[in-house]
Amino acid sequence: MHPQTDTCQDAGVTFLSCNLTGNTWHLKVAAMDTINSAETTPSRPTPGAWLTRQMEARRLSVRQLADALAVTTQTIYDWRGDRAAISEERVPRLAAVLGVSEIEARRGLGYWVPEGALPSPAELDRGQLREALRRFRQAADDLERLIEDPPE
Fold first, then answer.
1. Are 42 and 7 in contact (CB under 8 A)?
2. How far apart are CA 108 and CA 119, in angstroms?
3. Which of 13, 59, 82, 85 is least enclosed by beta carbons within 10 angstroms?
4. What are the counts of helices (DSSP H) followed by strands (DSSP E) for the chain?
5. What would the pLDDT profile of 55-68 be if each residue is shown by its tens digit?
């Protein structure tokens, strides 16, 4: 079973996806105001398509990836074909093998990423870096206001 992207809204929370890995359910949720169209667009690539693109971009063979992750080639084919999900426990190692951040891998595989989490600066263009800096400065200003004038 692979991650499903379904949305339903209940009490201000949107459930983005859930999947079953072994006997464990993994849920992906977000507050409604944090949802953007990219997260709910049905044309979003599947985890298998994302993995295939990453492998092709690096000219990484199925055998090479299987060896690096200590899995069978059949497992890689199942992941690429969306017949099996890549467990969250494997994401850090997969990210390292592919040379991407763990955040990018989690997003590509459809797993939850903490709100406000940013990929590494190397993954961002100048506009995205400026936006990240603006958000950081805004958060610092908000924190400074809380320190100077704590809520009662």
1. no
2. 12
3. 59
4. 7, 3
5. 999 999 999 999 99
